Structure prediction request, 343 residues.
Amino acid sequence: MVTGATGYVAGWLVKKLLEEGLTVHAAVRDPKNKTKLAHLDELAANSAGSIKYFKADLLQPGSYAEAMEGCELIYHTASPYTLTVNNPQKELIDPALKGTQNVLSQASETPSVKRVVVTSSCAAIYTDASDCENAPNGVLTEDVWNTTASLSYQPYSYSKTLAEKEAWKMAEAQDRWDLVVVNPCGVFGPALNAKASTSESTNIMKQMADGTMKMGVPNIGIGVVDVRDLAEAHFQAGYKPEANGRNIIAGHNTSFLEMAQILHRKYADKYRVPDKALPKWLLTLVGPIVNKAITRPFVKKNVTVEWKADNSKSKRELGITYRPLEETMLDDFQALISAGVIK
Ligand code: NAP
Prediction:
């Protein structure tokens, strides 16, 4: 069973599961919404596996019972990923935390379940790139937990931290299923259903093309992983018996500037993709006016600060090889152009 099967990240996972000939129970909020599901129908029609839809909501206790029935493996990917919210408790924390409680308590009540894979995030490890400096040897590892996000500062990161902690607590309270957590950094790469994507990943790419960043890109240090490599990581986390614990899934320690420059080289003649960084002092002044998530403390702790994480566990234990950043960025942009999202 896959929660949030309509999502950007889940799409490639569902594709992989279907290609392996598996039966996927797709738990979605609206099984009648063809705009959100057509790509999954098409994938199922062209693969050895099959898909069944079930109506479920993270905030509705018991709503995953039918979807989970008879399943051995649960992928819990559903959680809102957005950086601009009005009510962080309602829009981020509740679905992340109560949703995890809902899905995992259902796993404990469903006798067939043997493993749960939770899609957490590197956001449960760090808030700001400057947190890397405080990590042992200046590098984020699976041993590090986010201690700096809160309801009022980077609430998305806070929501992922609370949800993952709850998942570990619930896993320890029983002994039928084991928990494997994947902790992806920023996910990019082609969306299977770009038109309907609600992911912040798509939003960031759109902003690189639509002139929002024409004055320059905020040179924030981040990690990037390709959505297709992340699907493989989810698959291995589910099917490798020895998979365990937290797993940082990060292909590249990079920055928005490097990402933009890759796009600029190919698309500068048609789109207003920046190839320069917006000066930090200027961003400190205008950031909070342009976007309420770009606060002064955020600029100070992220802009021109290097992001570093150790991805060796994912390579060693899950067998992941990461594709080049250039392939990720160019395929992502092209998919958005083809879908008419970038015009
Ligand atoms: P997305 O495309 O917006 O997917 C979010 C999914 O969550 C959608 O399928 C959405 O379903 C579902 N969802 C939201 N609220 C729900 C609710 N109340 N009940 C049931 N389902 C609900 O975002 P994404 O980027 O793929 O993110 C998927 C997961 O990956 C999240 O857990 C996110 O934290 C994690 N992650 C993402 C990134 C990244 O850079 N994208 C990085 C690290 C971790 P609807 O279609 O019904 O809205």
About this structure: The pocket of NAP is lined by residues 4, 6-9, 28-29, 36, 57-59, 77-81, 95, 119, 121, 160, 184, 186-187, 197-199, 201 (CB under 6 Å). The mean pLDDT is 96.
